[in-house]
Design goal:
Structural class: mainly beta
Order of helices and strands: HEEEEEE
Number of helices: 1
């Protein structure tokens, strides 16, 4: 159940060495945060939903730098 919630609802999935974020959350959720540890690194991930949508990624940043549109779902 934990993995199903993480992958299907929060849209948080590790595919090989690539982290994908493609949330499908209730419209009422203003956002959520995840702390993810991968090998020796710690990643603090914040997802914001100011428009109250349930699906999609409009913008993504890594260390404060915007990712190109075609990489918006792929964080590394």
């Amino acid at each position: 159940m934990y993995r199903a919630g993480l992958e299907e609802i929060l849209g948080f999935r590790l595919q090989g060495a690539t982290l994908l974020v493609d949330p499908c959350v209730p419209k009422a959720w203003p956002g959520f945060t995840i702390v993810f540890r991968y090998r020796s690194a710690r990643y603090d991930i914040a997802v914001e939903n100011p428009r109250g949508v349930s699906r999609g990624v409009a913008h993504a940043e890594l260390d404060g730098v915007a990712l190109p549109g075609d990489h918006a779902r792929s964080l590394w």
